[in-house]
UniProtKB/TrEMBL annotation:
Species of provenance: Gemmiger formicilis
Enzyme Commission identifier(s): 5.1.1.7
Recorded family membership: Belongs to the diaminopimelate epimerase family.
Assembly information from the UniProt record: Homodimer.
InterPro entries: DAP_epimerase_AS, DAP_epimerase_DapF
List of residues binding substrate: N13, N67, G77, N78, N162, N197, E215, R216, G225, T226
Protein name: Diaminopimelate epimerase
Length: 292
């Protein structure tokens, strides 16, 4: 079977976009995500995003995002900007676009420049499944001691749709094998039975953070939009960055601007671009992908 797709990236977080606005989500959506995301063997990506019929009367489309291992994410901060850019160039040429999601609600996006979108990401909350820890008034869990990968850490658990485990470092954040090893150890820690995304953040100025990311379901990625929001929220809550001001989150794939507002809602601004389109042959799935 042949499938039309568009490859897009936001801050280097790359997804394959499949337009299902007419037909709806395909039954093999998760299996296709595993197959198509494999770098060197197929299109290659951090995951697949299906654009589906809207869930609300005022929605322009709905978005379903699947990580490279076939697990479904609740939200995708980089992916939703690319989804808006895709819709903008495929029939919804408006500067305000509304994208529905099954469990994170509707996201409203504003086109603030050529290929530049600002998205209202909603309120940050406690990461939902940090077992045994108690958040402040049901809010994020701050300064939680955790042993993982043979090291003792202090982590901040914040959800922005997806759950995130944020760690602040004095040194430049880890990359390569170190990022993969620590990300995996923390991301699969028993405190997080549903798995968690991991961000290492080094404050580099009063409003700037250098960040590296290990994503559940995809491994190390060049950026994570909800992750950038979670890092900014943790930085505000721990007094490292100001509330209500733009915070620049520098990731290996690009810089995202995040503003944590007085009511705990978060604004995320960043690029969104198509890189190529094509047709891919869907093969019967042979070998399952290993856990990342
Ligand atoms: N890269 C995304 C988040 C994707 C989902 C995440 N891996 C999860 O399963 O929670 C972003 O830009 O937010």
């Amino acid at each position: 079977m042949k499938l039309n797709f568009t490859k897009m990236q936001g801050a280097g977080n790359d997804y394959i976009y499949i337009d299902c606005r007419a037909a709806g989500l395909p039954p093999d959506a998760a299996a296709w995500a595993v197959q198509l995301s494999r770098r060197h063997f197929s299109v290659g990506a951090d995951g697949v995003i299906y654009l589906c019929p809207p869930l609300r009367a005022d929605g322009d489309a709905a978005m379903r995002m699947f990580n490279a291992d076939g697990s479904e994410g609740v939200m995708c901060g980089n992916g939703v900007r690319c989804a808006a850019e895709f819709l903008y160039t495929h029939g919804v040429r408006r500067d305000c676009i509304r994208i529905d999601t099954p469990s994170a609600g509707q996201r409203v996006l504003h086109r603030v420049g050529d290929g530049l979108w600002q998205v209202e990401m909603g309120r940050f909350t406690a990461a939902p499944d940090a077992v045994g820890a108690v958040g402040l008034g049901g809010g994020p869990l701050l300064d939680v001691p955790l042993c993982a990968g043979g090291r003792a850490w202090r982590v901040h658990c914040v959800a922005v749709g997806n759950p995130h485990c944020v760690l602040f470092t004095h040194e430049p954040p880890p990359a390569g094998a170190e990022l993969a090893a620590w990300g995996r150890a923390l991301g699969h820690h028993p405190a997080f039975p549903g798995g968690i995304n991991v961000e290492f953040a080094q404050p580099i100025s009063p409003t700037g953070l250098a960040v590296t990311v290990w994503e559940r379901g995809s491994g190390a990625t060049l950026a994570c939009g909800t992750g950038a929001c979670a890092v900014a929220a943790a930085a505000v809550l721990t007094g490292r960055c100001p509330r209500g001001a733009p915070i620049l989150v520098q990731l290996p794939g690009g810089t995202l601007e995040v503003c944590v507002q007085r009511d705990d809602t978060v604004l995320l601004t960043g690029d969104a671009a198509a890189t190529f389109s094509g047709t891919v042959l869907i093969q019967p799935c042979k070998a399952p992908r290993g856990v990342v």
